Amino acid sequence: MCDPDHTPYTGLTPDCVLDAVDATGLRSNGRLLALNSYENRVYQIGLEDGDFVVAKFYRPGRWSDATIAEEHEFSQQLADAELPVVAPLRLDGRSLLQHAGFRYALYPRRGGRAPELESDDHLAWMGRLLGRMHGIGARHPFRHRPGFDREAMIEAPARAALASGLIPGHLQTPYRDAVARLDAAVAERFAAAGPQRTLRLHGDCHPGNILWTDAGPHFVDLDDARNGPAMQDLWMLAQDAHGLDALLEGYAQFADLEPGALALIPALRAMRLAHHGGWIAQRWRDPAFPAAFPYAAQARWWQEHIDDLGEATAAMT
User: CB-based contacts of 93: which residues, under 8 Å, 6+ apart?
Assistant: First the structure.
């Protein structure tokens, strides 16, 4: 049995992955390719009929069954509305599956390339899709998934970082103070922006979660879907002010932003920065994380992170 805090994927061997696919009635051909993913474990699996599926094994202890069900429901609602979203397969009426103590879902394989975010046409296209997505996301909120708020994105990750043992003793007070100042500045920026509509979001809408084909873009990986302000799904796709204008031009064809939404961008950027450090620290006992982020064991990196938090705070004041 896996230890969700230390070795969450112990027992998830290639044979276990293939057996999980076979248990659904699909027949794997033994071909397995691990795909890039830190939070979960994701594999491309070849099938005997020549097709492929993608298997996502959820990190033990992270999400409840109810929160995963909401992710799948949102994906399916978007796909039913003919939005280019890769929704999980339903097998015998179920999309959340279990095998050998692991929860997993199977997806059709959808290839593609990275989006060209220097293209105004591509940005406007993405804006239109996000406007449509948010129209569906606004129908009702998630009931079980967490919100995009200061507790989830700043305060809880900071507690994890301080408890991890990664931050050297002489940097713990400067880190704590930097987080506190950033948290206060984010709160002030949200208050100054005024009321913002909260809706179901993709939640992690960076270019790596978008694949482009000759038919256009499609979204993958709604694992971080949560309730939050619309701007959270927009700002990471714009590389500069001109790109943001192109993105919002497309978005405005299907959805409106509240006054003050643009003023949230420095706060949203700061929240993502604070969360990143805490996320690495929280997952440090997973062997994949020291291998992927070895610099997080160095005092120099935490000093740079503290400096980055200070710069993000200054950008809001």
Answer: none
The pLDDT value recorded for residue 114 is: 87
Is there a single domain that holds both residue 193 and residue 283? yes
Check whether residue 129 and residue 267 sit in a common domain: yes
Its pTM surpasses 0.90: yes
| Model pLDDT for residues 228-245, shown as the tens digit of each residue | 999 999 999 998 999 999
**Residue with the two structure tokens 């909120």:** 141
Domain range spanning residue 93?
14-108
Q: For residue 148, what is the domain's CATH number? A: 1.10.510.10
| SS3 label, residue 105 | strand
Q: Are 150 and 52 in the same domain?
A: no
The answer to whether residue 8 is domain-embedded is no
Cα distance between residue 68 and residue 220, in whole Å? 15
Q: Is 123 in contact with 248 (CB distance < 8 Å)? A: no
Total structural domains within the chain:
2
Q: Please give the positions annotated as active site.
A: 204, 221
Is residue 5 in a domain?
no
Of 234, 257, 56, nearest in space to 148 by CA:
234
Domain identity same for 102 and 125: no
Q: Give the model's confidence band at 2: pLDDT under 50 very low, under 70 low, under 90 confident, else very high.
A: very low
Residue ranges of E strands in the chain: 28-35, 41-47, 52-57, 97-99, 102-108, 198-201, 210-213, 216-219, 226-229
State pLDDT tens for residues 118-171.
899 999 999 999 999 999 999 999 999 999 999 999 999 999 999 999 999 999
Buried (b) or exposed (e) across 259-270, using 16+ Cβ within 10 A? ebbeebbbbbeb
Q: Is residue 130 part of a domain?
A: yes
Residue pair 99/16 in contact (Cβ under 8 Å)? The answer is yes
Torsion of CA 104, 88, 206, 232, to 10 degrees: -100
